[in-house]
Design goal:
Among the domains are: about 150 residues, Glycosyltransferase (Alpha/alpha barrel); about 280 residues, Beta-galactosidase, Chain A, domain 5. Helices cover about 35% and strands about 20% of the residues. The longest helix has 20 residues.
Length: about 675
């Protein structure tokens, strides 16, 4: 019996299908070829020399079962878990991108339910093949030793290896071998599953799992991509190669992965600590890749492979996240993202790098540590272009994030000059984060200027293609002091109609934001015709409610009816002119309007787009005062003091506002 026949006989107990047996045998052959016999041990080396394949595989499996538990908490099967999630996954009840599907009988890893019922979202199949559901299964088994978890995992693992191949278009729709998925499997779900189930698997299945991980690693080494994908791919290769040094190519693969990780960290992280995609979701992805790399190298004895620059970037990234943090201790939603908790940065940073008072302040929800030092609680990140205006660091702070930055290197939205407004933990004027990555009109809306707190010109929303990343600090005229914050920026790029392709530059939009501390914000929007013609101008604000009511004391003013702790009073003091005010919810024609398209915590639902529109003018100034008002407390009192000056009484304070000198 030759070598190939012996391998086929070894896997015969796993399947009666000839093609599947051949695939399993090929995997085992690849693993045997790349294992270092001296590292596995004398029994393995002797069995190979004797040609006793059964004994060799038994010795190899015994070696892997006898290895110590993974010393890195994130990869350990000893962690906490969701028992209900483990039960669902072991029964074939799956949920990806907010869409549920139950597999009756055997799981099909190449099935996409969105192809049946729409809207089509290729991410369902891709993310299903990240196998994150194996993590609660592994931890549930480790804790309870219930055989149903081990049986389900073994069945799913063998099916996945048998069913999936590296297609010609491995990063295309329908592929289980997209490189980002390979990276995520190797840096997380497969390691936890290995740690949890290695004592429960038979020899051949255990070795097939390791062989498949190696095949995924060499696929990633051979086919690097770019951006946050390359970070996850390289992190996966480094993780696997660091945890499985018995493979002859482990050191070389680890070196390749480390070089890519270091290069990409230096290239992707901006000098102010933000990731160049300007998305909290992908910022935390890249942060975790850096933290995983640093943690593994230090824990497993590879500290020399990590330059000091990596720890500097970890700390700087956490600092940027702290500066951006809302009063809810989350990150404001910018570009594609769901709601990211700031402690995802701070807790791990302090574990890895030691004492950090501002990290502990966030991690302990203000119980310990102290907020960042600074002249005020506000901050400006000049490369990301985020002006954060904050009354204080308390849980009930007033907060606004003003975006004056570029598009971002990826996952970008048409959102220059957008604002996010919070009072305490409540988001009063929102950016929803863009929804799922589906092919739908709702997704297009959430990416567009129509779905952000910006302006329209002749019914067209902003649409820019450059710049992606700021090469120099962005001058926003930033001022912060005890009594006010100020920032300003201009959108002088192109506009486009919903669903259209034609671009034009009919007007320029300048937005100034002044925070009159501690009470309210003044948003001053100046629209100026570029072509000398008269245009229609419209300013938009988005609120996650369908209930609004007018404030009769102020023409065009409205207040939300969230029925929580705070409402937001939106009071215009515009130029003289006929301004039409409209609150729209759940509209699809003539354009999409009044929808909240959340990602993973608040899905597509009706909301309100509040608009003010003036028609047929060359130049116009919209001035909007935003007041967070506690339910039951007095509304603001605003009086014109002559010229550009106003007197505002609110919250027991008196403010003198000069629209001609908002930065003074």
């Amino acid at each position: 019996m030759n070598h190939e026949q012996r391998l086929l006989s070894v896997v015969a107990a796993l399947t009666a299908d000839g093609a599947t047996a051949a695939k399993y045998a090929a995997h085992l052959g690849e693993l045997i070829d790349v294992l270092d016999p001296d590292a596995i041990g004398k029994a393995y080396a002797q069995a190979l020399a004797d040609g006793d394949l059964d004994a060799a595989l038994a010795a190899c499996a015994a070696y892997y079962r006898g290895k110590p538990d993974f010393p890195v908490e994130e990869l350990s099967a000893k962690g906490t878990y969701d028992a209900a999630a483990a039960d669902r996954a072991s029964s074939g009840i799956m949920r990806e991108v907010n869409i549920d599907w139950t597999f009756e009988g055997e799981i099909d890893f190449l099935f996409d339910p969105t192809a049946l019922r729409g809207p089509r979202n290729h991410e369902w199949l891709w993310q299903f093949n990240r196998h994150s559901y194996w993590i609660p299964m592994a931890r549930a088994y480790r804790k309870t030793r219930k055989e149903k978890y081990a049986v389900a995992f073994r069945t799913q693992l063998l099916k996945w290896i048998a069913q999936t191949d590296i297609p010609a278009n491995w990063n295309g729709p329908g592929s289980a071998w997209r490189t980002i998925e390979c990276g995520l499997r190797l840096l997380g779900s497969w390691q936890v599953a290995y740690d949890g189930f290695r004592t429960a698997l038979d020899d051949v299945t255990l070795l097939l799992m390791i062989a498949s991980m190696h095949r995924q690693a060499i696929h990633l080494v051979a086919h690097p991509t770019r951006g946050n994908w390359l970070m996850m791919e390289s992190n996966g290769v480094y993780t696997f190669s660091a945890l499985f040094p018995e493979l002859c190519d482990a050191a070389a693969n680890r070196a390749t992965a480390a070089e890519r990780l270091i290069r990409e960290l230096n290239g992707q992280m901006l000098p102010d600590g933000m990731h160049n995609e300007l998305s909290p979701d992908y910022q935390v992805v890249v942060y975790r890749c850096a933290a995983n790399f640093y943690s593994l190298a230090n824990t497993l004895g590879y500290r020399a492979e990590v330059p000091d620059r990596v720890s500097e970037l970890i700390r700087k990234t956490a600092h940027a996240a702290v500066l951006l943090s809302t009063p809810a201790l989350t990150q404001p939603r910018t570009n594609d993202t769901f709601t990211i908790c700031t402690h995802l940065y701070t807790e791990r940073t302090e574990k890895l790098l030691g004492d950090c008072p501002e990290c502990r302040y966030i991690t302990t929800a203000r119980a310990e540590g102290q907020p960042p030092a600074g002249m005020t609680a506000s901050a400006y990140l000049p490369y990301a272009g985020f002006a954060v205006m904050r009354s204080d660091w308390g849980a009930d702070a007033t907060y606004l994030c003003f975006d004056v930055g570029p598009l971002g290197a990826g996952h970008m939205h048409q959102d220059k000059l957008n604002i996010n407004l919070y009072k305490g933990s409540e988001e009063l004027i929102y950016d929803d984060g863009g929804g799922q990555y589906e092919l739908s009109r709702a997704r297009e809306y959430a990416l567009s200027g129509y779905g952000h707190n910006t302006v329209l010109v002749d019914g067209m929303a902003q649409y820019r293609t450059r710049p992606l990343v700021a090469q120099e600090p962005i001058d926003a005229g930033w001022v912060t002091c005890a009594t006010f914050d100020y920032a300003a920026a201009t959108y002088d790029d192109t506009f486009r109609a919903e669903g259209g392709k034609e671009l034009s530059k009919p007007a320029t939009h300048k937005r100034e934001v002044r925070f009159c501390k501690p009470g309210f914000f003044c948003i001053r929007d100046t629209l100026l015709s570029n072509d000398g013609a008269a245009h229609d101008y419209e300013v938009l604000f988005h609120l996650d409610t369908t209930r609004m009511r007018a404030l009769p004391d102020y023409p065009g003013a409205m207040i939300s009816e969230f029925a929580r702790t705070y409402e937001v009073a939106i009071i215009p003091i515009d130029d003289a002119g006929e301004v039409a005010v409209e609150a729209v919810s759940g509209q699809t024609e003539p354009r999409f309007c009044g929808w909240y398209n959340g990602r993973n915590e608040s899905y597509l639902h009706k909301a309100t787009t509040l608009s003010r529109r003036v028609c047929g003018v060359k130049e116009f100034h919209f001035t909007t005062l935003l007041f967070p008002v506690r339910i039951g407390e007095a509304l603001p009192h605003i009086s014109h003091a002559g010229g550009s000056r106003y007197l505002v009484r609110f919250g027991g304070n008196e403010y003198h506002l000069d629209l001609a000198a908002l930065n003074q």
